[in-house]
Amino acid sequence: MTDTSGALTRQEQRYSPLSDYLSGVSPDQCAVMSFAEIEKVIGCPLPTHALENVDWWRPIPKTPQGRAWLRADRRADVDLPSETVTFVFEVFKRGQSLDELKLMRDYWLALARRELAAPGNFSNVERGWWEPHLVYLIHFAAEATFKVGLTRIGSTRVHRLAGRRGQLVDSIEAANRWAALVVEHHVLELVWDAWKRPDRFATGDQGETERWSDWLVPPPLSVVRDSLIEDQKSPGWDMSVFRKES
After folding, report:
1. Per-residue buried b or exposed e for 194-218, using 16+ beta carbons within 10 Å of the residue's own CB
2. Tens digits of per-residue pLDDT, 123-146?
3. How far lies 26's CA from each of 42, 93, 98, in Å?
4. How is the chain split into domains, by residue range?
5. pLDDT one-digit tens code per residue, 141-165
6. In what order do the strands lie in the sheet with 166-174?
7. Contact 60/48 with Cβ under 8 angstroms?
8. Model pTM above 0.90
9. Residues 6 or more apart from 242 whose CB is under 8 A from it?
């Protein structure tokens, strides 16, 4: 059956019968299908773009059709003139290791500290990074996970991420994104032992790399912030700069 470790979107559900079909083909065999056969399996016509452009068939996890055959560990090789597709068995692997993620986080921490130590240039003001930010903690009881994250004050991101299954359990305000990044980093430093690897099809849009098992409960965010004594001495820690109105 199709790998459904990640929830399927409505568009993905359109192509999930194809995933199920491909999953039933032996890994040592290629699945050669005509456009008509694919349409019969999914129960609807393929979009015009699929019939005219090879890019539609690229193995891109962000596209609903790409995720359909990637979930079945297949790569689509299309021949537009003959209107056929060869689905070749190829195990799809994606995602950073914990060590790689830590290196990336260390880079962002160093960058944030440089910005806070010498705020005169105010990098990324136009992106709102020097405006007040919220550091938040969401609990997903059904998944037994916590998620830490940050967003600009007034953003709907927390509401969107929590949805119906998550609950905002803690939050604090920071003067800017850089200070918020420092707090977020130190929360993650406390919970790496419980880190949960994201689904291999995670796009990153939902902050999947900042989640961990809820057997490890972090201290209140205010406690984490107050422990950062040296960081709070940085000139830019309490600075907020707003974008100019156009």
Report:
1. bbbebbbbbeeebbbbbbbebeeeb
2. 788 889 999 999 999 999 999 999
3. 20, 19, 33
4. 10-89, 98-233
5. 999 999 999 999 999 999 999 988 8
6. 166-174, 133-140, 145-152, 211-213
7. no
8. no
9. 130, 131
